[in-house]
Amino acid sequence: MQCEDAEVLLSEMPEAPSGELNEHLAGCRSCRQTATVLGLASLPEPTALERAALSQLPLRAHQAWHVKEARRFSVQRVAGYALAAGLGALVASASFLSFRAPTPVLPQQVKAVEQRPAETLGEDPDWDVGDEGLAAPADDETAFFDVSWPSLTEGEEQ
Amino acid sequence: MTASTPSSPPSLSLVRAEPESDTSLCRAFLEGDSKAFGELVRRHQDTVYRVVRRYVTRPEDGFDLAQRAFLQAFEAARRTLPRLDRASGGEIPFRAWVLRIAINLAKNHSRQTRRWRLAPLQNVAPLRTEGSAQAALEHAEAEAMTRQAVLKLPKRQREVFTLRIDAGLPFAEVGRTLGITEANAKTHFHYAVKRLREEVEALMQPPTGAPHAV
């Protein structure tokens, strides 16, 4: 028997090894230590008191399940009522908004606005530069530069 | 029409009734059969209680944790059943669910109550009276220390150890419960035992390097 197999067998019955396992334990110090540790680590059997209390567990658990279910249903019912109330309020407000009396339309106020003719730069005294020296004399032809392109018929003999 | 022959009386044979599976019981309960609930709880209550027992110091806490584990497992079954019905097979691994839930609840309980340092159910364990009183005390102390060491094992090793030693599940079912392979469960168990042996050996050795009295 290998130590791995002995460990598996010891985990099944750490308190009462028998047969081939006993022979292995007699010659293997490591497995004896494993048996000791498993024996120390295993818990004692449940007492008669614990077993008696445990036999009531199905009934207790069933009652707890019913309480839990009742609470769940009540929460669902309250949530349903709240949802229904919210929807009702939404529908009511929408219908109120759509069916309420139309508000009277006030006549538009007409305001007389004084319209002035379009102003030009020349007429506006504010835009008058007022610099007499900059203005070229009307009869001074030297001050005129024709920078436009020549016409298509320029230079042709008439 | 054929001539009627004298027929022999029908023979009755006893047929051993197969126990209902966890899945059919769970289904029956969720469809309204309240007896199925009790049957399922009765079937697994001992295993579940043995698993949570290691983590509690009072039996009442163990009963409470076992009850909560069953309720949560039924809740999980109700959530999962419609999905399982759509899938082929539709088996409910109720035992694995309730054991995993029980382990998690017990672990959370011990963390919340900060009872790691107390020897679990020490008051329930009978004191061994063979041999001298000194030997009995030393044995009780060694048991308490070893059980503390079990609670300090890494998570997976502790789960495997608890399911194997306390619940007595075979390694294949330990693996199914924890979602690991059987070989992996055996490996975790081996390392858990190795670690416990080291802990116990360290505890059993007399302290060295104590200051000498002048």
Defining traits:
heterodimer, A: 158 residues, mainly alpha, 5 helices, 0% strand, B: 214 residues, 65% helix
Please give a structural write-up.
The complex is a heterodimer of chains A (158) and B (214). Chain A has 158 residues and is mostly helical. In chain A, 51% of the residues lie in helices and 0% in strands. Chain A contains five helices and no strands. The longest helix of chain A has 43 residues, at 57-99. Chain B is mostly helical. The model of chain B has no long low-confidence stretch (mean pLDDT 79). The interface between A and B is large, with 31 and 44 residues.
Mean pLDDT reading of chain B: 79
Number of strands of chain B: 0
Distance between the termini of chain B: 117 Å
| Overall mean pLDDT of chain A | 76
Q: How many whole angstroms does the radius of gyration of chain A measure? A: 55 Å
Question: Helical element count of chain B?
Answer: 8
Helix content bin of chain B: 55-70%
Order of helices and strands of chain B: HHHHHHHH
The arrangement of helices and strands of chain A along the chain is HHHHH
Q: Helical segment tally of chain A?
A: 5
- What's the multimeric state? heterodimer
How does the overall form of chain B come out from the CA principal axes? elongated
Number of strands of chain A: 0
The helix/strand class of chain A is mainly alpha
Tell me the major beta sheet of chain A: none
Short description:
By secondary structure, chain A is mainly α. Chain A has 5 helices and no strands. The chains are: A mainly alpha (158), B mainly alpha (214).
List the helices and strands and how they pair.
The complex is a heterodimer of chains A (158) and B (214).
Chain A: H1 3-12, H2 20-27, H3 29-41, H4 48-54, H5 57-99
Helix pairs in contact in A: 1-3, 2-3
Chain B: H1 22-30, H2 34-53, H3 59-86, H4 94-113, H5 133-151, H6 155-166, H7 171-178, H8 182-204
